[in-house]
Structures are given as structure tokens and as C-alpha cells.
Specification:
Layout lengths: L2 H7 L1 H9 L3 H9 L5 E2 H8 L3 H13 L3 E3 L3 E2 L5 E2 L1 E4 L12 H12 L18 H21 L26
Antiparallel strand pairs: 1-5, 2-5, 3-4
Helix pairs in contact: 1-2, 3-6, 4-5
């Protein structure tokens, strides 16, 4: 189903797709995946204006990607509302937002040293059956580790994979 059809049939689905088409919002979800963060904390971590961040946080809350945690006292007794990711983004098809994922990935790795990246780029030649198997096994492995939940003594990591047609035309058989 394309984006237009989804919006016609389900305005909430269209709003969810729009909400995660922003690299900034995807980075907010990553920052709130394991610990709740306030609008102010998110603005500082991502280097954006708190008013701009509030707009993005409200969009993510309104579409179910973030949930407010109980209020807490901040500096000088101010009221703060921390937000935590709900996990909905794992179950939401990205569709047209795939370029947002690539841009988010590029923003996330900006400034990392080569030693901090473990990158694999592999060319494969697969028939339809093996391609489907490969995709299913990658998804199953990622889901298995996601479902385990975070390790209490663990460090945060991100995983990005992309399977795409290779613009490598077949050679001529002489």
C-alpha cells in the first residue's frame, strides 16, 4: 500500500508515517529508547531550540511514539516531564521514510572515529527465494535481540542495515 492509500484509509497511519519521516524525530526516539528524557534534555543533546524540540516531542506523543512519564522536579523546582519511546516505531513500516533513516544514520555516525564503526558492505547475487530467506533471517535476528530488552550493564548501540538492488548489470556471456 502506498502512502496515499494509507492516508485515505487511515489518517492515524498517515500521521504516524509523517511523524517518523523526520531524522530529528528518529534521533529523539533513539535517545528516549532506554531512559526517559525531558524536552530540555533532548534540545540540548541534539543542539536545537527548545521550542522546536517541543513541537517534535508533541508530534511523537500525539502519534504514540513517545509516552510521558510521571512529572519530576527539575532545577530550581521547575516541573519537568520526561518522555520515553514506546517501541511503536519498531512495528511501523517506514515506506517513503527510508531516506529519513539513511539521513538519521549519517547524523548518528557523524564525528565517530573509524574504530567506533563496524561496517560491512557485501555484494550478493540471490534468487527471490534466497533473498526472502536472507531478509527474514536478518529481521528475526534483530527482533530476537530487541525482544531480549536492554542489558542493565550494557552500552547503547545502533544497527543500520539496507538491502537494495545493486546497480551492477550482468556481464555478457561471450
Amino acid at each position: 500500500m502506498d502512502r496515499t492509500e494509507a492516508g485515505r484509509d487511515d489518517p492515524a497511519a498517515e500521521a504516524r508515517m509523517r511523524a517518523i519521516s523526520s531524522p530529528l524525530r528518529l534521533r529523539v526516539l533513539r535517545l528516549c529508547a532506554f531512559e526517559p528524557r525531558t524536552n530540555k534534555e533532548l534540545a540540548e543533546l541534539l543542539g536545537v531550540n527548545p521550542g522546536t524540540m517541543l513541537h517534535h516531542v508533541r508530534t511523537l506523543v500525539g502519534t504514540g511514539y513517545l509516552a510521558a512519564e510521571p512529572e519530576r522536579s527539575g532545577n530550581q523546582g521547575s516541573r519537568e516531564v520526561p518522555y520515553k519511546a514506546t517501541g511503536l516505531s519498531w512495528r511501523t513500516p517506514i515506506q517513503d521514510g527510508s531516506y529519513a533513516l539513511v539521513e538519521t544514520f549519517l547524523q548518528q555516525i557523524q564525528g565517530l572515529s573509524p574504530a567506533e564503526l563496524d561496517i560491512t558492505w557485501l555484494g550478493l547475487k540471490l534468487n527471490a527465494e534466497h533473498r526472502a530467506e536472507f531478509q527474514q533471517r536478518l529481521h528475526a535476528l534483530a527482533t530476537e535481540f530487541k525482544d531480549r530488552g536492554p542489558d542493565p550493564d550494557g552500552d547503547p548501540y545502533s544497527l543500520f542495515t539496507a538491502l537494495h538492488p545493486d546497480l551492477n548489470p550482468p556481464g555478457s556471456a561471450g
